[in-house]
What we know:
- The protein is mostly beta strands.
- Helix content is about 0%, strand content about 55%.
- A hairpin with a 4-residue loop joins strand 8 and strand 9.
Amino acid sequence: MVGTRESGLLSQLFSPATINISPGVDWKPNTNFSLFFSPASARIVTVLNNEIAQLPAISAEDGSYLGALQGNPQTYENGVVTSYDNIAVGVGALAKAKYNNTFLEDRVAFSSELNLYFDYLNSVGADKNVPTVDWLTSTTFNIFKGIGVTLSTGAFYDYTKPVSSGWRENADGSYGYETTKRGIMFTETLALTYSRVFGAKKE
């Protein structure tokens, strides 16, 4: 391997981070829905920590190499990472759809955002020529005077970035995942929220 694993870190600030620069057209037929499209969107993935950048993703099913764990460029030969880059640059098309609305006399607020990104550069010669999918939803239930409960969900799919779970320390002192494979990553967050408007004038 290029370097040694000492800290056992999986991620930290800007490792990884994604930066999107997307000039395009935003269509808003009403206040609840919008559709954005950019035919030339730059997508930059940074993994500035060298230990994290050299982490390979190995399939838990057959032991095959799936790529870099955080999606950065990486070379893997004879069971070791021989080289890696800290930055990956892509240029492609981005489509984004947003919807938001309130129900039950503004007691329930719902929002949803779907992002589809197709990379022109890295799709050439790829095993699977499919777009990256990122779908986020948020539902807030207003309980009493600014106090609410928010349920946020997410679904993410990127063929170049494997999904892993069960980060652990092995018997030999190294670190690794119990399960690593290509697939959809799901997230869910339940939070108690409080909102208040300051400085509002009384009528």
